[in-house]
Design a protein that fits this description.
single chain; 126 residues; mainly alpha; 4 helices; 2 strands; globular
Amino acid sequence: MNWYLQAFKSYAVFSGRSRRKEYWYFFLFNFIISFVLGFIDGIVGTFSQEAGIGLLGGIYSLAVLIPGIAVSVRRLHDTERSGWWLLIALVPIIGAIVLLVFMVQDSQAGANKFGENPKEQESPTG
């Protein structure tokens, strides 16, 4: 949970580096929360078939948009890639696969042009 909150503490920080753990815990908690909110939207009746999203899910999606982009850019920095590589996700299928490969790669050892290795710095517990 601390890794999820760490991404929110760096809400709009697009510089520096993020560990795999921070990125994937953020992704996992977003998935779980979105699923639960979608379920609640369906029960309450605020889910829109035309839009494919409910009121609560839409509000949550907007709230995590900037932190999600920021943690993704920092994760790419950790593999010594520019944050602009995030745009490869716009290429159907292939872009998502390439981005997934980038996100699961290990950190570059030592410092790189984006900052110090976050594995070598103190990390949140949990």
